[in-house]
Amino acid sequence: MNYKKLGKILGKIMILESILMIAPLLVSIIYREDWKHKLAFILPIIALAAIGALLQLPKPRYETLYQKEGFALTAMVWIVMALFGALPFVISGDIPNYIDACFEIVSGFTTTGASIINDITVISHSALFWRSFSHWIGGMGILVFVLIFIPESNDGSAMHLLRAESPGPQVGKLVSKMKVTTRILYLIYLGLTVIEIIILMLDKPIPGYEGEKFFFSLLTAFGCAGTGGFGFIPGSMELLSPFSQYVISIFLIIFGCNFALYYLILIGKVRDVMKSEELKSYAAVLVSAVVLVFVSLMWRFEEFPQEYTVEEMFRHSLFQVASLMTTTGFSSTDYNLWPMMARTVIILIMFIGAMAGSTAGGMKISRIVIAVKGAYVNVRKLINPRYVPKMKFEGKSLDEKTVNDVFSFITLYFFILFAAVFLLSFDPINGELVTVVSDAGEYVTEHGFLSNFSSALACISNIGPAMEAVGPYASYAGFSAFSKIVLIFTMIIGRLEILPVLILFNPKTWKRI
Questions:
Q1: Which of 24, 52, 154, 363 has CB 3.0 to 4.6 Å from 11, enough for a Cys bridge?
Q2: To 10 degrees, the CA torsion angle through 181, 183, 188, 194?
Q3: Residue 100 forms beta bridges with which residues?
Q4: How far apart are CA 277 and CA 264, in angstroms?
Q5: How many alpha carbons lie under 13 Å from residue 379 in its C-beta half-sphere?
């Protein structure tokens, strides 16, 4: 294990985090917050910069990072970022409990959007900015950003880091140089974010928040870009105009696409984009889900409490499907009260997620497509042992290893999901009645199995809001400290797609060979 090299990169990450904290510090200064809120960022900035600088001092004997080390380092980086990123909430008093603060910032960096805050109106502007900014930081990946500045080596170290952090089964270079690839990805990411901010600024201000137009447009774009979904006003996106809700829906779908497709568009290869099998599958699932939810709302219109026009039914169907399929978690209404068919569709798309190479979570469309093809081939082999499979994905032949890796991931995904549900079943909150205040009024729901199951699913798929007592108008505050720690690790495991975290905590990883 190349400990000095690991320490050196970890130190760079800590220095980077200290630089990133300057942004919320400036927000605190702009909004003239008290010194406690300014010190909440100044003290961690100093600590991160100092520790990061000390970790730069030892010189490694060799620069190579092997795959095992790359995966372990990736998980380590995300944990360290969260441990320090939680400090501003605690020091400022916005979230005084450290475990709660860790839950909030892990939810931010992993672009989950699950929150323990019951009253968002008492949170300072700097804390609101830091929460949403963490979505934007974690969306494309912390190490992907750092790779822009790390000198590129010929030993594949950068590729190991990129594979460990990037979502989806296939990660590669857009161009021959890894550093250029990461720059292209971030320029596309930044460009789309800026475009969304500009379009949102064209809308009228949110009633009651007239002076916050730019600030809220910024936070909304951060949440969409990172597919995170932290709310910053009561009711998440409920108070936004139909124009803004449609804009958000469209940009969520855009950020749920593989960023490599946008690069192909930029270099004029639009035909290659249109041939993408994963893009076609993504569009088909998304459109089907919107239609099914809309039909469900139209069909059972008189049986649920919300009063919608036909246009509102379509808008909420589009918004919630786009939000939950891209694992963002923004809400425009309380889908917890929707008919069973609509809620079933929502749960299914929470499993699926969006495209590989996007900022979304979930299992990813590409894995679902490959798994379906693999299952079909296995059935054909049982029927006809002489059958020679010819599996292809995106025009390329699928080897047996790729298919096995996909099945292994799905197996681990469900194992961890049910392990988390089992651990949550010990929480004292189980069986308690929870009062929820939503756009349909006040109602009481029980914290039961669906609450635990959907919480674990929302965390491993990095979605945020779940069902029942942890629905879109509720929070995770009622869980015990133990359950919150379980969900913290579930969020990190989901964002890093399992393997980096398992490798980090495997004792064999740290043994000298």
A1: 52
A2: 170
A3: none
A4: 15
A5: 6
Which stretch of 145-154, 307-316, 385-394 has the lowest confidence by average pLDDT?
145-154
The pTM score is 0.92
In the predicted model, what is the mean pLDDT of residues 247-251?
97
For the chain, the first-to-last Cα distance in angstroms comes to: 8
| Tens digit of each residue's pLDDT (9 = 90 or more) over 313-370 | 999 999 999 999 999 999 999 999 899 999 999 999 999 999 988 889 899 999 999 9
- Tokens encoding 304: 């649920």
| CB-neighbour burial class of residue 332 (10 A; exposed 0-12, middle 13-18, buried 19+) | buried
DSSP for 474-511 reads --STTS-HHHHHHHHHHHHHHHTTSHHHHHHT-GGGGS
SS3 60: coil
CA dihedral 489, 492, 495, 497 (to 10 degrees): -70
Residues 6+ apart with CB under 8 A from 276: 258, 261, 394
Closest C-alpha to 18, from 92, 112, 87, 71: 87
The residues facing 433 across adjacent strands are 446
Q: Tell me which H or E stretch contains 442.
A: strand 441-446
Written in H, E and C, the secondary structure of 403-440 is HHHHHHHHHHHHHHHHHHHHHHCCCCCCCCEEEEEECC
Q: Which two tokens stand for residue 76?
A: 């380590």
* Interval 198-232: pLDDT, tens: 999 999 999 889 889 999 999 999 999 999 989 99
